[in-house]
Amino acid sequence: MLADTTLNPRELAHVWQQLGQDETLPDRYELTQHGEVVMSPKPTNRHQVVAAEIAFLLRSQLGGKAVTEAAVLTREAGVRVPDVVWMPAERWAGVTRENDLLHAPDLVVEVLSPGNRRGEVAHKVRAYLDSGIAEVLVVALDGGLVFHRIDGAHDRSSFGVELDLPDDLFD
Questions:
Q1: In 3D, which of 123, 78, 132 has the Cα closest to residue 103?
Q2: Do 136 and 67 contact (CB within 8 A), yes or no?
Q3: What is the pLDDT along the chain (171 residues), one digit of tens a residue?
Q4: pTM, rounded to two decimals
Q5: 59, 63, 64, 145: least surrounded by Cβ within 10 Å?
Q6: Cα(40)–Cα(93) distance, rounded to whole angstroms?
Q7: Are 85 and 73 in contact (CB under 8 A)?
């Protein structure tokens, strides 16, 4: 793909499906809006525990389904794989094998790792919100929570969820 050519959603979905059939690729990657593969390092066990705990809390408080590492199609940042995605059960019913990419789930969560750069995270948050996602939760390295919505950053979720994460998961 050309780095200055932005692919439309159908083209990105096609590239994503083709990559999913490539057995030589590692399991952790995303696509830029240009169709370029971005490799992601394997998350630490602690990172995965935080994501799993958040998925459990979202599902237990909001119902619906909360999953880790679901592929989300954005308009500005390509195909991204946030740490957690939540949607009501009826919205999950429309997700099929043929169209496995999620379009504007209600809530996504990014759990920060030491290697995350501020600009990269801000770009993802903007891309998620500009794609119609209602809320983006960013979990800081120290366990701090920031809920981003189209009108800015907030310290509480618009969904009313309370996330009491154990202190021992953070340094």
A1: 132
A2: no
A3: 556 788 988 899 899 888 888 888 887 888 889 999 988 888 889 999 999 999 999 999 999 999 999 999 998 899 999 999 999 999 988 776 666 778 899 999 999 998 889 999 999 999 999 999 999 999 999 999 999 999 999 999 999 999 999 999 987
A4: 0.89
A5: 63
A6: 29
A7: no
Structure token pair of residue 53: 């705990």
Q: Are 82 and 51 in contact (CB under 8 A)?
A: no
| DSSP letter for each residue of the chain | --TTPPPPHHHHHHHHHHHHT-TTS-S-EEE-TTS-EEE-PPPPHHHHHHHHHHHHHHHHHH-SEEEES--EE-SSS-EE--SEEEE-HHHHTT--STT-SEES-SEEEEE--TT--HHHHHHHHHHHHHTT-SEEEEE-TTS-EEEEETTEEESS-TT-------GGG--
